[in-house]
C-alpha cells in the first residue's frame, strides 16, 4: 500500500507555544483523525505540513517526495479545506470556480458538478448568502474536484448539522474506498467512530499517540483510562487541570 504522507519530527516554535517533534504517516485509502483540545497544535500541524508556515525542524514527504523540493507538483495532488470559505464573499460561486479551476491541471468538471448536486449548492449564490455549514460544503467541493489523492481538512464537520455531518463522513468512506487518503482534524470524536482507521492525538504541542484508533482505545480500556476517545481525552485533559491546581 502506497505511503501518501510521511511527517517526521516537525517542530514549530512560537513565543508561548511549541509544536514539538510531531510524526505520523498515512497510506492510500486510509482515514486519519487529528485530535486534541483547542490550542493543542492541530491547526499548526496542518499549516506546517502544507508549508503555510515555516517549521524549525523535521521532514515532510508526499508520495515519497520532499515537500521542500516538489511543493508545486505535490499540491496539484492534494486537496485542502480549512473550514468555511472566506474569500470573494460577494462573487457568485460560478465566478469563483471559473478562476479556481485554472490552478489545477487535474480539475474535473464532472466531479465538481457531482458534489454541487450532492451538497445542494447553488452556484448562482455568493458565499455571503450561504450558511456556515454550506460554506464548509463549498470549500470541500473545491477540494474534491481536482483528482486529489489526499484530502487535508481542518475541522470539516464544524458548523454542520448532524445529518449533513453524517452525509459528509459517508463521502469520506466512499472516497477512501477509491484509494483517497484523508487527514482531518476534529473535536467531534464521535465522527471518528464512524469512519477513521487511525488517529494522531496531540496534547500541549506534543505527540500523545499515533496509530490504529481501535488499538489505542483497546489499550486505554485495558489500562482503565476510558472506553471511548471522548473518555480518553477527558481523562488526560483533566490530568492537566489537576496538575495546574496541585
Structure commentary:
- By secondary structure, the chain is α/β, with parallel strands linked by helices.
- The chain folds into two domains: 172 residues, Rossmann fold, CATH 3.40.50; 64 residues, no CATH class.
- The chain is 39% helix and 25% strand.
- The chain is built from nine helices and ten strands.
- The strands form two sheets. A six-stranded mixed beta sheet has the order 6-7-8-3-9-10, with helices on both faces.
- The model has no long low-confidence stretch (mean pLDDT 90).
- The CATH class of the largest domain turns out to be Alpha Beta
Number of strands: 10
Biggest sheet strand line-up: 6-7-8-3-9-10
Helical coverage, percent range: 25-40%
> Proportion of β residues?
15-25%
Radius of gyration: 18 Å
Structural class of the secondary structure composition? alpha/beta
Mean pLDDT metric: 90
Distance between the termini: 47 Å
Instruction: Provide the CATH superfamily of the largest domain.
Output: P-loop containing nucleotide triphosphate hydrolases
SS summary, helix count: 9
Please tell me what the overall shape is.
globular
Element-by-element helix/strand order: EEEHEEHEHHHEHEHEEHH
Named CATH topology of the largest domain: Rossmann fold
Which stretches are poorly predicted, pLDDT < 50 over at least 5 residues?
none
Major beta-sheet overview: 6 strands, mixed
Amino acid at each position: 500500500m502506497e505511503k501518501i504522507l510521511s511527517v517526521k519530527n516537525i517542530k514549530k516554535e512560537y513565543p508561548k507555544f511549541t509544536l514539538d517533534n510531531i510524526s505520523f504517516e498515512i497510506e492510500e485509502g486510509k482515514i486519519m483523525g487529528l485530535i486534541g483540545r483547542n490550542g493543542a497544535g492541530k491547526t499548526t500541524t496542518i499549516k506546517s505540513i502544507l508549508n503555510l508556515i515555516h517549521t524549525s525542524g523535521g521532514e515532510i514527504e508526499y508520495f515519497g517526495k520532499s515537500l521542500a523540493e516538489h511543493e508545486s507538483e505535490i499540491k496539484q495532488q492534494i486537496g485542502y479545506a480549512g473550514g468555511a470559505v472566506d474569500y470573494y464573499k460577494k462573487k457568485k460561486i460560478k465566478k469563483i470556480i471559473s478562476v479556481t479551476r485554472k490552478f489545477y491541471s487535474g480539475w474535473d468538471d464532472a466531479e465538481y458538478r457531482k458534489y454541487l448536486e450532492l451538497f445542494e449548492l447553488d452556484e448562482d449564490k455568493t458565499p455571503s448568502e450561504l450558511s456556515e455549514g454550506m460554506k464548509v460544503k463549498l470549500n470541500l467541493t473545491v477540494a474534491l474536484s481536482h483528482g486529489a489523492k489526499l484530502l487535508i481538512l481542518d475541522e470539516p464537520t464544524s458548523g454542520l448539522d448532524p445529518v449533513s455531518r453524517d452525509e459528509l463522513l459517508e463521502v469520506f468512506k466512499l472516497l477512501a474506498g477509491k484509494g483517497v487518503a484523508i487527514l482531518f482534524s476534529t473535536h467531534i470524536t464521535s465522527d471518528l467512530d464512524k469512519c477513521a482507521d487511525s488517529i494522531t492525538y496531540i496534547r500541549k504541542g506534543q505527540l500523545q499517540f499515533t496509530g490504529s484508533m481501535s488499538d489505542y482505545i483497546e489499550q486505554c480500556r485495558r489500562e482503565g483510562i476510558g472506553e471511548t476517545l471522548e473518555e480518553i481525552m477527558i481523562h488526560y485533559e483533566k490530568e492537566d487541570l489537576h496538575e495546574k491546581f496541585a
